[in-house]
Design goal:
Elements lengths: L10 H7 L13 E2 L11 H12 L12 H15 L8 E4 L2 H12 L5 E6 L4 H8 L3 E6 L21 E7 L11 H14 L2 E5 L26 E6 L1 H4 L7 E4 L3 H11 L10 H13 L1 H23 L14 E2 L10 H12 L1 E2 L1 E2 L13 E4 L4 H19 L1
Parallel strand pairs: 1-10, 3-4, 3-5, 5-6, 6-7
Antiparallel strand pairs: 2-8, 7-8, 9-12, 11-12
The protein binds pyridoxal-5'-phosphate.
The site of pyridoxal-5'-phosphate has 14 residues, from helix 4.
């Protein structure tokens, strides 16, 4: 049985454990293709290493700045997989990427500061900026002729109050990557106006065959002194509930500020021992599993795209990365919230609306579909979508 076959999914367990708009929260019969989480169990090595650790019966305090082995494993994997040089001493394992984003915002922002947030993008960017008392300034995304997200208009949104740019690479929900020359342009802009960059690379492992992920950090540590990166394991290794992520920087001064705002020295904040054991297993042993997962995702992506683009009143771009589709539904004449409600109430399919709450006002007229499930569930979900769209045509 393949690790990513339908038979390998334990729906009874998902119905008890998978929250955040997923199986445990939906009524019987509804298929959720919603939050970016996996329907498959994790790699066996993660389970085995956790069991070995648990068996000893000790859950003592861990080093405040993270287990050295965990920091080193993350740095090794970043070098091996992404050609990025990170000093393990400047890696802080933390309880989720979401938390990391809030820590970064708190570490560098003050009330009155402005921060550029792309529109659309995952809601966590705006949320973290607002919680830190700063003001998000939305940058409406436009694509260039190659289909890349344009960064050349960013400068128009910079004022004397601008303190940081939030950067989602790869981009959720558009599934876009950035060419190196655009990353160079972004760093030049940040250098010119002395801006911080919140660099979220949580999706950087979910990149399809023939595409290339480029990191800002490949442009050298010297140029990235004001880049604060977050990276995590929820999307690529399925451990969202373990709340595991990390922050890394190129500069000791900013590392100290991050540590301060993470409240790890007082032990009021921080990541659990078990989560760090899981991270080590992911980084040291589970990339083979991720490579297999990518093959499965690629099949799902190609199938879903072909199906959706043959349906009436909907169209979808091909994601280069992520396991998310972000189709345009404007031809239905419905707004995203009404369309999602119609799908759920009348066709038993739950997806995420493109609305201000989730991705910003620029996402209106779109919906997000997550395809990190079995081929069979995806097919059934798409059948329901197709029926719903055809019913609108009648
Ligand atoms: C761009 C982005 N950042 C952060 C997160 C949150 O990740 P975590 O589960 O580690 O908090 C997500 C989850 O979907 C995401 O898409």
């Amino acid at each position: 049985m393949s690790m990513f076959s339908h038979e390998n999914i334990k729906f009874d367990v998902l119905k008890e454990r998978a929250y955040n708009m997923r199986w445990a929260e939906v009524e019987e019969g509804i298929i959720p293709l919603t939050s970016a989480d996996l329907d498959f169990p994790v790699a066996p090595e993660i389970v085995e290493d956790l069991i070995d650790y648990i068996k000893e019966g000790y859950f003592s305090y861990t080093p405040k700045l993270g287990l050295p082995k965990c920091k080193q494993s993350i740095a090794n994997a970043l070098k091996r997989r992404k050609n990025v040089n990170v000093n393990p001493e400047l890696v802080l394992p933390i309880d989720s990427v979401a938390r990391g984003m809030f820590i970064i915002a708190e570490a560098v922002l003050s009330p009155g500061d402005e921060v550029i947030v792309f529109d659309p993008v995952d809601y966590l960017f705006k949320e973290s900026v607002v919680v830190a008392g700063a003001t998000p300034v939305l940058y409406p995304i436009e694509l260039d002729v190659q289909g890349n997200i344009r960064l050349d208009k960013l400068e128009d949104y910079i004022t004397e109050k601008t303190k940081m740019i939030c950067f989602c690479n790869p981009h959720n929900p558009l599934g876009k990557l950035y060419p190196m020359k655009d990353l160079d342009g972004l760093l030049k802009l940040a250098e010119k106006y002395d801006l911080w960059i919140m660099n979220d690379e949580i999706w950087s492992d979910i990149v399809y065959e023939g595409e290339k992920f480029n990191s800002l950090l490949e442009l050298g540590n010297e140029r990235n002194k004001k880049t604060i990166s977050v990276y995590g394991f929820s999307k690529s290794f399925g451990i969202a509930g373990l709340r595991a992520g990390c922050i890394y920087v190129q500069d000791e001064e900013i590392f100290k500020k991050i540590v301060d705002k993470a409240h790890v020295i007082s032990t009021a904040g921080g990541i659990t021992s078990l989560s760090q054991i899981a991270i080590i297993a992911c980084m040291d042993k589970c990339y083979y599993w991720l490579d297999e997962f990518m093959k499965h995702l690629e099949k799902n992506r190609d199938y879903a795209l072909e199906r959706i683009n043959a349906m009436p009143k909907i169209s979808c771009n091909k994601p280069q990365a992520t396991f998310l589709l972000f189709p345009d539904i404007r031809e239905t004449g419905m707004d995203s919230d009404s369309f999602v409600k119609y799908l759920k109430d009348e066709h038993q399919l739950l997806i995420v609306p493109g609305s201000s709450d989730f991705f910003g006002p620029g996402s209106e007229g779109h919906v997000r579909i997550t395809f990190s499930t079995s081929f069979e569930i995806l097919k059934e979900g798409l059948d329901r979508l197709e029926n719903a769209l055809k019913a609108l045509n009648k």
